[in-house]
Amino acid sequence: MRTHLAKRALARSVAALVLVASAFVVPGQPATAASTRYEAEQATITDGVVESNHAGFTGTGFVNYNNATGSSVEWTVTAPDAGEYSLIFRYANGTTTNRPMSIAVNGTIVNPNLAYPGTGAWTNWQTQTVRTALSAGTNTVRATATTANGGPNVDSVTVDNQAAPPGRDWSRSVVDSTMARSSPTSLGLGYAHALFLYGTYLVYQRTQDARYLNYIKAWGNAKVSADGGTGSSYNNLDSMLAGNVFLILHRETGEARYQRAAQRIWNRFPSYPTTTDGGYYHSTSSSRVGQLWADGVFMSQPFVARYGVQYNQTGTGFNRSTNQMKVYYSHLRHTNGLLYHAYDEHKDESWANPQTGQSPEVWCRAVGWFGMTLIDILEILPADHPNRTALIDMVRHLAGGYQRWQDPATGRWFQLPAKPTVSGNWTETSCSSMFTFTISRAVERGYIDASYQPVANKGYAGVLQKVSIGGDGRSNITDICIGTNVGNQAYYLARTRATNDFHGLGAFLIMNEQLIRRPPTT
User: Fold this and answer.
1) Does 520 have pLDDT greater than 70?
2) Quick one: which of 498, 501, 517 has its CA closest to 456?
């Protein structure tokens, strides 16, 4: 593994090259007809050196960051017009440790903690993308290491020279409309509201519209006391999703109360009841003893992994979250490529199969929650973590099911996805958003091959058919299933098909931000 001393020795041998790269900005080289690549070795380098000892780079080399907080590379890039662009950073990280960097454009941080997880080897080059606004003409883009490990090896940044796709920005429409309908203080601590706030933050990261972050801050101000208390004892997994917003607020504001609030959730797990094989009960209430619901992993496990990264508890965070996924999957996996909604260890619930303990139905949103959880954890899980392969295999299982059960007529998925022809079944928007997000990100990260891309394309088009602008000028998203327990076929089919339910608003934002950043392709 490279050391700071080794870098300093190498720096002496390439000092002249570094000085030249620091003093001049060489025009970028075209990468495709729609983008321009800017090599790192031709940028301004602070606390780093230019190297060429790991194969696979473009240009004449790459930048090896010193193991120091604040080491950076700054490019000068050109945008033909003002608008939103993709900044695509090509990097390699041969360690097992995430090496996050803050990304600043024209001196303003647009992403304070962009993850650069391990790529398996220094010769394995991958990309991380930030969608952000650029001014017409010259812009500066700086990638700065935020930990003492420094940054990864950085090869280049590519600027997508096409602004955001023409037409309405549906993420902005949904957030603006929801903000107009609901004040931040009117939102609670429940998972559906927290999901929307998380989605709103994704839109803020792309647009840098301060109104969106201020909305989230106003919610936090109203809900979290100085000691981190929220009035919740965190006796069910649903109540824990808000922890993701607490992590965001602590990063954005530096206020200790948000770290304390997140820590209360983290500290709940050691005493939280589990099945005999370690799966967290969906709730500690007497009516949920021994039950694992597919929904529950999204409510709790991305938070666990993110908390571990943010507060240097990665060993516990990664092991705990990935082990939960393995336990849940072992009980919920369905041979049709999807998952049962729930499992009862004691097999005494009215809905439980007396032999397997599994629920009778596959419910689309439960499967959607599980898929998004896999993606979120894999995004920060080290390349050599012993459970990484198992999680990728789960993604592949679900991808096959999503492809198999996608409605060919609409591109969406049914409330009971494996029963498309049953009378009264209907395509549900929130799970269709979740499935689309999962497929798109899985193709992007290489967990599944590009043959699945048409599934995401059709899913996205199908979801957009459920989004419109009303007479009041505000957006509406229709056919969203309200909150749902475990039940039988008739129960799921009779659930209310709501408009602008927060389950669907949050899921839509997560999907739409992914598809804006990585538009559908043929």
Assistant:
1) yes
2) 517
